[in-house]
Amino acid sequence: MSGVPDIGLHDDEPHESGLNNKLNWLRAGVLGANDGIVSTAGIVVGVAGATTDRSAILVAGVAGLLAGAFSMAAGEYVSVSTQADSEQALLAKERRELREEPEHELAELAQIYVDKGLSPDLARRVAVELTEHDALGAHAEAELGIDPDDITNAWQAAWASMLSFTVGALLPLLTIVLFAAGARVPVTMVAVAIALAITGWGSARFGYGPTRKAVVRNVAGGLLAMIVTFAVGSLLGTHL
Fold first, then answer.
1. Stretch 120-141: mean pLDDT, rounded?
2. Phi, psi at residue 32, to the nearest 5°?
3. pTM above threshold 0.90
4. Which of 26, 29, 88, 150 is paired with 160 by a 20 to 30 Å CA distance?
């Protein structure tokens, strides 16, 4: 009986949850950097289409970087805070139910394992052993899909989002201000295309999707954004 994966099932879940959480953070970082690259590249290339004044391009790029970074951080903080508040409320409800209706909760947990394919007797034994080991963890994970020890910190998410966006934004900003007027736009476009190919590949790898499609889609979208903003900047620059 002890050879049946009662404990193995319980031990595997935190490991898998931790791995998925790390992958989610990496994927969020890659996507944040991607946003920084595309949005800042669009701004600086657009301004470069209107003027060759390096100071004007730098000011616009820095303003776009700061606005985007703080916007990303604020959005991530609000989103993660809302999710964390919901998870904490659900955990509080689960604690109360475990305290007030332990037998009902045990039967509910056993039924979850029956629905997953275990026999009623084995499901009952699994539920009992997991509840004795960590009642809240077992019930929260099986019923709610929440790991009580792995609630995302909103401040950490906000800082990570801000940092990844800033790192991505620095590439087009530095590229376009360091090169001479005649070369800055094409060099920036090439640098951005290479960076977007990398972030597209990374997001596909972390998301277990096809890398070639992700790279082509990412690069094409970024180039289109830069071409449009450059054209608009050039058009406005000739009329101002």
1. 84
2. -65, -45
3. no
4. 88
